[in-house]
Structure formats: C-alpha cells, structure tokens
Amino acid sequence: MSDGTLGTKSGSASWLLADSPNNAFQARCQRLYIGWLSFKSNPIAMLGLAIVLFLCLVALFAPIVAGGDGTTQNLANRLAPPSAEHWFGTDELGRDIFARIVWGSRVTLYIIFLVSIIVMPIGLLIGTTAGLLGGAVDSTLMRITDIFLAFPRLILALAFVAVLGPGLENAVLAIALTTWSPYARLARAETLTLRNSEYIMAAQILGASRIRILIAHIMPMCLSSTVVRLTLDMAGIILTAAGLGFLGLGAQPPLAEWGAMIASGRDFLLDQWWVPTIPGIAILVVSLGFNLLGDGLRDVLDPRSSGAK
Amino acid sequence: MTMNKMKMTGFETSSPGEAPLISVRDLHVRFATPKGQVHAVRGVGFDLGKERLGIVGESGSGKSQTGRALLRLTAGNGSIEASRMMFDGKDLMQASAKTMRSIRGSRISMIMQDPKYSLNPVLTVGKQIAESCRRHENVSRAEAKRRALAMLETVRIREPEKVYSLYPHQVSGGMGQRIMIAMMLITNPQVMIADEPTSALDVTVQMQVLSLLDDMVRERGMGLVLISHDLNLVSSFCDRVLVMYGGRIMESLDAKNLDQAQHPYTRGLLNCLPRLDGNHDDLPVLRRDPAWLTEGDDVPEGGAA
Amino acid sequence: MIEIEDFSITFGSGKNQIRAVRNFNLSVAEGESYGLVGESGSGKSTVLRAMVGINSHWDGTIRVAGEALTHKRSVESRKHMQMVFQDPYGSLHPRRTLDDTLSEPLVIHGLDNREERILKILKEVGLGPEFRFRYPHQLSGGQRQRVAIARALILEPRVILLDEPTSALDVSVQAEILNLLSALRKAHGLTYIMVSHDLAVVGHLCSRIAVMNRGEIVEEITEDQMRTGEVTHAYTKQLWTASQGYDRAALETFQEFA
C-alpha cells in the first residue's frame, strides 16, 4: 500500500480499513477492498480490467456507439476501406464494420455470461460432491467427467451443435457442455485437500450436515480458483464461439458475430484486408483482456497466496 | 544496575584464548514488505567458538533470520548489514556469490526443521549424501558411496546399506533428520547452524539427534549454533545461550546459569514454562516491556525502528 | 463421565490391516482432567477422533454420561462433546469471520440469542467484542486458539477433548492458553481429555495421565509419580527422562519399544 499511511485517511477509506469492523457487512467490504488494493497495484491486471469494462460499456451503449443497427446494407458502398465515415470500412454487403463490431460485443458478452452461469455451478457441484463424498459417487462422477475431457473441445461442440441445430443458444450450450469438466476436476482436487483440514473436522464435530459443509465451507474455498480459471478460459470460450460462428454453426446471419464476420470476410483477406482483420483484432483484444484480468485475479484470490500469513 | 554487571556481551566464547570461528557485530536484517520495512534483526553481535551456542526466542524474535544471515540466505526482499561478519578470517559481507556458494554446505552447513522439505524426493537418500560429498570434494563415485555409508553409520543408522537405497518418503522423521545431518556433516564443516532441528521429532528421538550434533562438537571441534524456541532443551544441551526478543539479544549467559538469568524477559520465559512439579496453579504470564527494545541504545535511532 | 472399554481401532483390511489402537480402557470422572501422553504414532489422537465421531472404524464401547455412543452420531448428541485442535492456523475457516464461525454451531443446533451468546463467549475466552467481525488472518496464533476454544464452548458441552492445544504456540502464549483452559474448567465444571507429547504441559493441567505407546496404554500414572519420576514401566521412565532435558548419560540407556 504505497498510498500513504492507513491511519490518516478519512471517510470511506478508514471505514474500509478499520481494525475492528462493526458488522458482517463492513467485514466483507473490507475484505473486498483489501483485495482491490492489491489488484490495483498490478498495472497489467488493471489493463485487463479496463479492456473488459470497456467491452461491457460498448455492449451496453451499442445503439449510441454504433449509430446504426449494423445490418443496414448498402451494396453501392461495399468493401470500402476505412475512412472518416466508416472507421473500419465496410463489408461485402456494404455494412459498416465498426457498427457490426460494436453490436458483436453484445453477442460475445451474451456467450460469456451464459457459459459462465452454466459452467461454474455444474463444475463446482460435481467436483465438490465427488471430492467430499468419495467412494462410488466419486468414481461415477469422475468417469463421466473423464468422458467429456477425452474429446477435443471444438469437435465435441460441433457434434452437439449438429444434434441441437445451429444457432447462438445452441452454440452456447455446446460450449458449456464441453467446458465444465476441467472445473469439476479442479474443484474435486481442491476438495480432497480441504476435506481433511481441521476446520472441516471442527464443523463435523459441531454437527454440520454434509450439505452444509459442502455449501458453506468447501464451495467458498473452491470458488476463487474456479473464477480465476474461468476468466483465463474466457479467451478459449470466445475463440470456440468464434470458431463455431466461422463454421456457420453459431450465430446466424444477419446477427453480427465476430467469428462469423471473419468467416465471411476471409475471401477478401488479400485485397480488402480490413474485412476479416478487424473482427480478428477485436477477438484478440478481448481474449487478451480476460487473460490479463484472470492473471491479476489469481494473484489476489489464490488461496495459496492469501489465507495464511 | 546490577543487571548490566551480570549481563555478558555475548562476545566471549566458551573457549577463551582461541580465535572465534564466527564473529558477528551489529548485524541488521531488514525486509521490504508492501506494508513498509520490517526490521527483523536489530544489531545482533556474538562470537562462536568450538562450542554449542544456543539462540532462543519466541516466533518473530529474529533468531532464524540471524542464522540465515550468517549464510547470506536471507530471502530476496531482505537486506543484511553488519559492521563485522567474519568466518575463519574471511569477511562474509564482502564475499562474492561464488565464495559464498563454496562456503555454504562445505564449511558452514545448515539443518532445517523439516527434513521432508530439504531432501529431494526423487533421489535415494544415499545418492544425495554421496552427491553432496562429490560436490565439495573431488572423489570417485565408489569413494563417495563408501564415505556416505560410513557417515550413515556415524549418525547411528543401523543398516546403512539398506537405508542408502531408500527414498525420502520411506524413512521416518527421526531417520530423515539423521540423514540430513549425515548429508551436512559429510563435507566436514567447521560450523553447523541448526534451525529447530528437532522440534518436529518425538522427545526421545530428539535427544538421539542432539547427541549426534554433540559428538561432532566434541570430537571434531565443530562450532554449533542451535536455534530453538525450547528453553529447557537449549539450557540442557548448549554451552552458552543467547536470548533474543524483537530482533535483539536480551541476554547472553552460560547455559548452566540460565536459572540465574537476570533479564526480566528471560525470567518471564522461564517462569511461564509448565513444570513437572504437580503445581496446577495458574502460570505466571509474561509481561513485555517496550523498553527492552531500546535499552542499551546510546544514541536513539531517530524513530527509525 | 467418560468410560471407554475394550476399545480398538483398525484401519484397512486383510494383509494391510493396521491396529492403530488396541486393548484401550479408560475411565474419567466428571470434572476431571485426564491426560493422554505418547509419541507420534502412539494412537493418542486417533482415540480422540473416534470419540468425537470423525473416525468410525472403532470397536468397543464409549460411554459419555452413561450413554453409549453409536458410530453414527445424531446432531443432538454432538452438543455434549467438543474438541480443540492443535493447529490454530488450520482449525478456523480462512474465509469466515469469527462471527460466522461462532454462529454456525448455534444455527445447527437451533439456539437463539445468538448475538448475546457470541459476545458472552468471546468475553469468556478473553477476546473483546471488537474481534467479532475479524477474519482469522487478522489474529495472532494465541487469539486464534482462543477462538477455537470459544467455538468448542459455545454449545455448552460437558466434555472437551484437547488435541495438543498449545504445541504450535510460543511458551508465553502457551501459558496464557493453559491458564484459560483451567479457568474455564473450574467455571463450567468441564471434563477434559488432553492429548500431548509434552509431559510438562499434560502434567500441569491433568491429575491422571495415561502413557501410550504403539496403540496401547502402557501405564497410568498420577501427578505424584509424574513429579518424582517414580514410574514402573520402562517406556514411561524413558519418556520422563527425555523430557527432563538433554542428558548424555541417560541417553545411552534408551531403547526402542516395539
């Protein structure tokens, strides 16, 4: 904490750094604030956070930022190079690439959000349950996990989409179904080391049920590594989604999706380079942003680096 | 001021007249942490002869950091400062990294608390001892193995041939610590720094391990620094004891005179030990006096502490 | 208060079967403080873990206040016997405030007046109300151990099992915790069973002590015997000698007890 001595701060900062919090809410806030202070001191992580926040803002204000819906065709002005009017040029149907990138950010966020809320609970629940209960439950759950782990991700996602039919929601579902297995492994491994710890034993002696131990004691400990892993995986998820889009199995036209934009623009790579390159850069920057954010979060959240002094 | 009269400086060894093996004056160890500077060792000075010197203190007293500083093994964010840190005529403060490497292990050895983390898990213990021998002396493989076996016997391992081919996870804690000692002794060091070498062991095993170190001091004229939190153990084993608190030496005295310690900190530590005397009364609680951290400072450090 | 008869613990099966504890009999009166001493692997902690029901691989009978304990414990029966662990850094959940840790047993057992009980117990173990919303990493080792004691006490049990409660602490802190433990025993009429490798610590807190070696009690000694060292079994004698400090001459007589 390079920003001066703690005692001299006033107002919210002193509330957040007080030695003896007065209630549970203040204690939780303090914990977050101290994590934030250590996160803030890492410029690379802050860059990642800035990129991710920027993506969210762009998606939120897409109608204002884009100045159009990104699907308006203008065949007279197709494949125009970047100019003051069309910052990133236009595509083969004369649509403004900038507007499509902006609208595409919504699709990307939508994918990320849906995948996260499916993958995290499934992975956590299966992993911690297997780890805590052990025995036959563990073997069964882990063999199922192994089956999912055994297939290459994109191939399995392709198979799912082929069965479910192309479309954005199905692509998300396919990605989620192929992504959860490493999370279950991770959560199980952590549970195995946690379940013999003395605080879990103490909870058992107090009479805590297995469900209580699972939810109140083990899951919070596994949560941070899962979040970190998910942020680091985001790049991969975005790329898989783009890959599915590229193969025409993800978002369907005319919806602007970055992967699909690269796919349709790849014929023009040599003469009108901007058509496929700009969405490629967008994917690169966003993936990078999540990766940097994940790295920073790992430093703050990793149970091995926090907790014991 | 009777206290000052009684208090020894820590500068005389148990064998006066002989040149000390290690001589330290005004040693400071500081660590830069995100929360500011931590001054772990504050002006420690002592001489070590061919004797058993105990450094006792509670956690955070700087005793381990003092031991590490002698080998310049302080962690990356720490800095060492001393007006004098001599080993066998060499100035350890000025020594190059290469010189330090040649001193570490072969002339000054160190034993840590837990042998599990100090031994390489994928090599047999015998190989590790032989390796350590070959690294410091130019001997053939066969000779190194012969010496390693002899050393295992010295540390009273019953079937050295069998133990030679065991992996670290196959040996018990006590045997692991004996193996560590064998590995450290095979290079015939002049000084051994033992940082809580026995606190992870059972009492009887603890005594057996200490007796090995005892032999080395008596028979080979080695200097031993035993760092421990256990006053009883140190007073019964060592020749001389330095009591540390807050990075300073509170008191230095002959181990056999520990009962007559003058410093209130030492007295407090002794009093709060439970004894085998059937007394169930409340133990006296140690009261700490902030003045202990500044006493003897002729010139105040300008609040830099 | 506590009677243990024909008690044994076996791990594994077939060839790999290990009898960790055998022929174990014990009787502790209400309000007594009983010590179990032994070296690592003697089975002393294993006994405690079986008593509180973490380990269910035991045979024999354990009776607490006349009631025989079953292998599977009801939530209600947990109330009477609690345990304090050795490592104050490992026995508190790092992501929960003291308030969370102390209110959990109250929630499990459906007790009300939670705030009042928590403040009362914190006061009893010598921690002020300002500690209530701190996380374990904001506490020293001794303070953590006080919290662990508070957690064990908050259900108002009659028996507390102490598994090396001070061996991870500095001697000055150890003295404070030992004083706290004896004060609490007097105030609540608690029955203690304390496990330790340190004869002096056990001798300070307990009036009777069982010495364990390789899963068996080799001898039960009184505090008088402890004081004078007049013990009969050779293993006890050796343990006693070793805890008197380093003694080169006595060391030569040491033997292995298998």
Task: Give a description of the structure.
The complex is a heterotrimer of chains A (309), B (305) and C (258). Chain A is mostly helical and 309 residues long. Chain A has one domain: MetI-like (MetI-like fold). Helices cover 71% and strands 0% of the residues of chain A. Chain A has twelve helices and no strands. The longest helix of chain A is centred in the middle third of the chain and has 37 residues, at 97-133. Chain A is flat, with a radius of gyration of 23 Å. The two termini of chain A are 17 Å apart. In chain A, 40% of the residues are buried. The model of chain A is unreliable at 1-9 (pLDDT under 50). Chain B has 305 residues and is an alpha/beta fold. Chain B has two domains: 1-107 and 191-202 and 212-305, P-loop containing nucleotide triphosphate hydrolases (Rossmann fold, 3-Layer(aba) Sandwich); 114-188, no CATH class. Chain B contains eleven helices and eleven strands. Chain B has a six-stranded mixed sheet, sandwiched between helices. In chain B, strands 1, 2, 4, 5 and 6 form a five-stranded antiparallel sheet that branches. Chain B is globular. Chain B starts with a helix and ends in a 34-residue tail after the last helix. Mean pLDDT of chain B is 83; it is low at 1-8 and 299-305. Chain C is α/β, with parallel strands linked by helices and 258 residues long. Chain C has a single domain (2-253), classed as P-loop containing nucleotide triphosphate hydrolases (Rossmann fold), CATH 3.40.50.300. Chain C has helices spanning 44-51, 98-108, 114-124, 141-153, 171-188, 199-205, 223-228, 234-242, 248-251, and strands at residues 2-11, 18-28, 33-38, 58-64, 67-68, 81-84, 159-163, 191-196, 208-213, 216-222. In chain C, the strands form two sheets. In chain C, strands 6-7-8-3-9-10 form a six-stranded mixed sheet, sandwiched between helices. Chain C has a four-stranded antiparallel sheet with strand order 2-1-4-5, covered by helices on one side. In chain C, strand 7, helix 5 (171-188) and strand 8 form a beta-alpha-beta unit. In chain C, helix 4 (141-153) packs parallel to helix 5. The two termini of chain C are 32 Å apart. The mean pLDDT of chain C is 89. Chains in contact: A-B, A-C, B-C. Chain A: This is Putative D,D-dipeptide transport system permease protein DdpC. Chain A: It is a multi-pass membrane protein. Chain A: It is found in: Cell membrane. Chain A: Residues 109-294 form the ABC transmembrane type-1 domain. Chain A: InterPro entries: BP-dependent_transpt_permease, MetI-like, MetI-like_sf, OppC_N. Chain B: Keywords: ATP-binding, Cell membrane, Membrane, Nucleotide-binding, Transport.
